[in-house]
Write a structure and sequence with these properties.
The protein is an alpha+beta fold. It has 17 helices and eleven strands. The chain has helices at 4-7, 24-27, 84-92, 101-110, 135-148, 153-171, 175-186, 200-205, 210-220, 236-247, 298-319, 324-332, 372-386, 392-408, 413-424, 430-442, 445-455, and strands at residues 42-45, 51-56, 62-69, 114-119, 124-131, 226-232, 268-273, 281-288, 336-341, 351-359, 461-467. A six-stranded mixed sheet has the order 1-2-6-3-5-4, with helices on both faces. A five-stranded mixed sheet has the order 7-11-8-10-9, sandwiched between helices. The protein is globular.
Length: 475
Amino acid sequence: MLNRKGLFIVAFFSAFLGLSQKSEAQASKTSPFDSWFPEAPEMRRLPNGLSVLMVRWPSPGIVAYYTLVRVGSRDEVEAGHTGFAHFFEHMMFRGSERFPQAAYDAALEGVGADHNAFTTQDFTCYTIVGPSSALPLFVELESDRFQRLSYSEEVFKTEAGAVRGEYQVWSSKPEQPMWEALSQLAFQRHTYGHTTIGYLRDIELMPTRYNYSLRFFKRFYTPDATTIIVVGDFEKDELFHLIQEHYGSWRGKRDNPPIPKEPPPKGGRKDLEWSRSTPPRMMIGYRVPAFLPDRPSPSSKRQSLREAAALDVIHTLVFHRSSPLYRRLVIEEKKLLELSSWAGEHSKDPGLFVIEATLRPPDGSASPSLFDPIIDAIQEEFDRIANNQIPAQRITQVKEHLLYATPMQLETPSSVAYLLASMLALSESIEDIRDFYRYLSEITPAEVAECARRHLIPSHRYVVTLRGPKEGEPK
């Protein structure tokens, strides 16, 4: 399964936590999220580099067991091998010699547990939710397949056919070719230029990549690239002892292929035609900074986290259903059927601030110029922010909304584990994530304006439009 940046499965808002221990200096910098958890989450590490985040949560008898692996389509640097992180997610469910797929599934179904996985640009995550009493089983099953995955070439080819079918299903929806086009338009060199599912030509060659898949497993499925996140009703020491016993002998160091650097943005546009009837659609991406810079200094880390917080404010400020732009374009003028942005999305490297709009179908054929007034209206709203024309009280209200709405979504062990995984994929430091939400509570109107001036500008903007067949053409 792919997440929204892969195949548009809607994700939760990002959120996070407090520290298990704080020095006196840190304690003076209280984050709003220090009070989110009944017990402070605790991170422990094994000598082999495996991280374990344990979060006690008031969910009697229920636990979420998530395995975060820091490998995604970002790491697919070899030509002809796009989509492999997602494809390998499929292969992981083939199991080991001890627990092949049928035995693995039967063991989890036998205790009433649900399991799944998803892949993104930056990471892959495997999920189990079930009874706390079955934690020893979860540890045994997951540790086995993560260290001793086993599958034949015939099984590999069968799964390659399943992925080819998945691509066909998703490419039949207009959002997928739009996201493919936007990715390629915005990233000429960086691996964000291909989507998580990969290029069709590479998917078609996957049946021939069996030996490559074995190397992929050794390169990226290593203890130092993995964090186990356990949320729910359990005893920490008992769990950690189990993990030490089952994962302690795991060996390997993650390969870190050089990711091509993207040149400065220049902007661009591509207009697509769809073979079937559809409302006109548009996807806009503005190039924005990474959640954290590579090898950050304290000052660059602070700047990146504050910019990420400012961008979250702008998402809500401009595209929430209560915003003036939404009310005008969707409700009052009725030019749009839908207007939204990918709020809460962050990336390991400089990525995109994404906006989606579905236009009300015109009376006749849609022309490319139909989209121009909407693009202009969105840019004008960003310019208003950049020029400090938004009342400070409105920005305060947006911050308060974000800081209230986010913890309200932490209702189950699974929702907590998902949010922690998506943030820990970008920074292995709890303190960085904690600081992010502290900065969100502190961000000023001047910082929000500066962020818009730096990044939400036409030269950083990439646009993909899609419209149905012209009038009189077959639909």
